[in-house]
Amino acid sequence: MSAIKTFLTENAAYLSEGSAAAIESIPDAAWPALLAGVEALGGAEPGIDCKVVITHETLADFDAARIAHWSERGGRKELTLAGLPAVHFDRFQLRRGSPRQNQVVIDLGDRRVSLY
Fold first, then answer.
1. Which residues, at least 6 apart from 27, have a Cβ–Cβ distance to it below 8 Å?
2. pLDDT tier, 33 (very low <50, low <70, confident <90, very high otherwise)
3. Average pLDDT in the 36-53 region?
4. Which residues contact 105 (CB under 8 A, 6 or more apart)?
5. What pLDDT score does 64 carry?
6. Which residues fall within 8 angstroms of residue 98, CB to CB, at 6 or more apart?
7. pTM above the 0.90 mark?
8. SS3 5
9. Do the Cβ atoms of 92 and 101 come closer than 8 Å?
10. Where are the alpha helices (DSSP H) in 1-116?
11. Separation of alpha carbons 60 and 44, rounded Å
12. Closest of 67, 73, 37, 65 to residue 53, by C-alpha
């Protein structure tokens, strides 16, 4: 059984339906990058310590939204996680009055995985 399937089976009671579906769609080769992304956010378990979402927005799309639409841009750091390009956004605020948050976006090629 793959590491992803084992993780999903062992943690089914703790995962939201959305995070579980996102994790299940990730290729096995990207699992180490996902774990490294969660660690960069200060957690250990994807879908438990942070939400996991699949998106077709590119890293450039995230950067454009950060510049044009985010209320506070926070910090931005480029990463390489298990050989995959990623960006860590730190303490940003999407709209005034909303809490500041951190996010790691990992480029899987045909889609991205967002951890927040």
1. 108
2. very high
3. 97
4. 55, 59, 62, 86, 87, 89, 112, 113, 114, 115
5. 97
6. 71
7. yes
8. helix
9. yes
10. 3-10, 17-24, 31-40, 59-68
11. 27
12. 37
Q: Round to whole Å and give the CA distance between 104 and 110.
A: 17
Q: What is the distance between the alpha carbons of residues 82 and 85, in angstroms, rounded to a whole number?
A: 9
d(CA 108, CA 96): 31
Residues in the chain: 116
Rg (CA), the chain: 14
| CA dist., res. 27 & res. 114, Å (int) | 15
Region label for 69, one of left (φ > 0), alpha (ψ between -120 and 50) or beta (otherwise): alpha
| pLDDT tens sequence across 53-87 | 999 999 999 999 999 999 999 999 999 999 999 99
